[in-house]
Amino acid sequence: MSHIAQLPYAFGGPLGCAQLKQTPADFQVEEILSYPLTGQGEHLWLWVEKVGQNTDWVAQQLAKLANIRLRDIGFAGLKDRHGITRQWFSLYLPGQADPAWAQWQIEGVTILSSTRHQRKLQTGGLKGNRFIIHLREVTADPAQIDARLQQMAVAGVPNYYGPQRFGRNEHNLVMAQRLFAGELTRLRPAQRSLYISAARSFLFNQVLAERVRQGSWNQACLGDVFQLEGSTKWFADDASADLAQRVQEYDLHPTGPLVGVEPSPATSVALQLETAVLQDYQTWCQGLYALQLKTGRRALRLNAQAVSWHWLQEAEQSMPDLVIQFELAAGQYATVWLREAVELS
């Protein structure tokens, strides 16, 4: 059983089951940039819709067609191949006119538009993603699902890293274990980064899981480190009188550790909890320390925005379908949000 399946729920567990990704149109995701594009500059930005293709492969095809190096292609993140995804790619074309991109033929890919900008699109360079998800044959009472979705939209859910982070059958965690054991000495940088990220994400999930069990994932604990809503900036508990209220008002979120070489900025109760959880994973922690990774933090709470949904039921259907729309910040997972309402298959 995957560790994801064992992570505790915030609201008592899923109310029923639903089928996800029966067709590409059932899972649609669209990037939301955090800044406007200027229309000028050395980087050509392409707004791309892809179906059934992964992001790395699309980047390779664009590099070939534009006759540039793969390193001169930018994209914000990897998007699921099993769906319809719309995302930006940047191409570094200094002193060059726009290529005839409208004539490019890439299987499963449609280039929708283009513009120019002064900078390359960096990994993680997004405000977030907009989702439209069609869940089929929902086996729960619609009224109960409606109430649960409303609860999730208001209160948020635990901000676990989702299964995509860990690979099929959590292969990335297996490889991380081998890496820390000294068994993998020749790895491409991208592979190495993937396995290291999976390990840090797993450790974060374990700390968050304990906060969920204790009922403190959405509350300020003594010694917590906080993240501002809509930002990746964080600060340690400074004993301000209004911290707990700001957490309740969703202006701040408590955070968990992304293990690195510097000591955790948490103190007191929060640090004691983190230390107790991570004690069982000292081999991994020591491996991360040795890599000299910068210590980071991630919000414990995920707050979806612009949440709406409606039910569909054809005459021949015994169970209804549910179509949900919402927006998540960059680095948050749609399946993590949905798991609090239904078990996905």
TrEMBL record:
<dbReference type="InterPro" id="IPR020103">
    <property type="entry name" value="PsdUridine_synth_cat_dom_sf"/>
</dbReference>
<dbReference type="GO" id="GO:0160150">
    <property type="term" value="F:tRNA pseudouridine(13) synthase activity"/>
</dbReference>
<comment type="function">
    <text>Responsible for synthesis of pseudouridine from uracil-13 in transfer RNAs.</text>
</comment>
<dbReference type="InterPro" id="IPR050170">
    <property type="entry name" value="TruD_pseudoU_synthase"/>
</dbReference>
<protein>
    <recommendedName>
        <fullName>tRNA pseudouridine synthase D</fullName>
        <ecNumber>5.4.99.27</ecNumber>
    </recommendedName>
</protein>
<dbReference type="InterPro" id="IPR042214">
    <property type="entry name" value="TruD_catalytic"/>
</dbReference>
<dbReference type="InterPro" id="IPR020119">
    <property type="entry name" value="PsdUridine_synth_TruD_CS"/>
</dbReference>
<feature type="domain" description="TRUD">
    <location>
        <begin position="156"/>
        <end position="302"/>
    </location>
</feature>
<keyword id="KW-0819">tRNA processing</keyword>
<dbReference type="Pfam" id="PF01142">
    <property type="entry name" value="TruD"/>
</dbReference>
<comment type="similarity">
    <text>Belongs to the pseudouridine synthase TruD family.</text>
</comment>
<dbReference type="GO" id="GO:0003723">
    <property type="term" value="F:RNA binding"/>
</dbReference>
<keyword id="KW-0413">Isomerase</keyword>
<dbReference type="InterPro" id="IPR001656">
    <property type="entry name" value="PsdUridine_synth_TruD"/>
</dbReference>
<dbReference type="InterPro" id="IPR043165">
    <property type="entry name" value="TruD_insert_sf"/>
</dbReference>
<feature type="active site" description="Nucleophile">
    <location>
        <position position="80"/>
    </location>
</feature>
<dbReference type="GO" id="GO:0031119">
    <property type="term" value="P:tRNA pseudouridine synthesis"/>
</dbReference>
<dbReference type="InterPro" id="IPR011760">
    <property type="entry name" value="PsdUridine_synth_TruD_insert"/>
</dbReference>
<dbReference type="GO" id="GO:0005829">
    <property type="term" value="C:cytosol"/>
</dbReference>
